[in-house]
Automatic annotation (TrEMBL):
<dbReference type="GO" id="GO:0003700">
    <property type="term" value="F:DNA-binding transcription factor activity"/>
</dbReference>
<feature type="domain" description="HTH arsR-type">
    <location>
        <begin position="8"/>
        <end position="100"/>
    </location>
</feature>
<dbReference type="GO" id="GO:0046686">
    <property type="term" value="P:response to cadmium ion"/>
</dbReference>
<dbReference type="InterPro" id="IPR018334">
    <property type="entry name" value="ArsR_HTH"/>
</dbReference>
<dbReference type="InterPro" id="IPR036388">
    <property type="entry name" value="WH-like_DNA-bd_sf"/>
</dbReference>
<dbReference type="InterPro" id="IPR051011">
    <property type="entry name" value="Metal_resp_trans_reg"/>
</dbReference>
<keyword id="KW-0105">Cadmium resistance</keyword>
<dbReference type="Pfam" id="PF01022">
    <property type="entry name" value="HTH_5"/>
</dbReference>
<dbReference type="InterPro" id="IPR011991">
    <property type="entry name" value="ArsR-like_HTH"/>
</dbReference>
<dbReference type="InterPro" id="IPR036390">
    <property type="entry name" value="WH_DNA-bd_sf"/>
</dbReference>
<keyword id="KW-0805">Transcription regulation</keyword>
<dbReference type="GO" id="GO:0003677">
    <property type="term" value="F:DNA binding"/>
</dbReference>
<dbReference type="InterPro" id="IPR001845">
    <property type="entry name" value="HTH_ArsR_DNA-bd_dom"/>
</dbReference>
<keyword id="KW-0238">DNA-binding</keyword>
<keyword id="KW-0804">Transcription</keyword>
<protein>
    <submittedName>
        <fullName>Metalloregulator ArsR/SmtB family transcription factor</fullName>
    </submittedName>
</protein>
Amino acid sequence: MSEKIMIPAEEEIYDLSEFYKVFGDSTRIKILYALLNQELCVNDIAAELSMTPSSISHQLRILKQHRLVKYRRDGKTICYSLADDHVVTILNQGLEHIEE
C-alpha cells in the first residue's frame, strides 16, 4: 500500500497559488533576472529592460508584496535587490525544468 500524501491546508494552498501567479508575468521575471547579480534602482531597471520607470515600479510593488525583492533607501533613491537565495533557486529550477 502506498504512503498517504499530506496535502497542505487550504490557506497554504491558496497562498502558494498566489505566489506562483507572480511568475506568470514576463516583466516580473525579467526584473528578477536584472537583479540577479546586482542591486538596481527603478531607473536602472527601466533602462535595462527598455521600459518606463512607472511600469517597473508597478511590478516591483507586486514583487515586494510577495517578498521576492527587498529595498533600501539611499537618500531619495530606492535600490532593489533579490530578497534571498530562494528567489535564485526558484528561477534556476524553473528554467531547468523548461529546458528538459
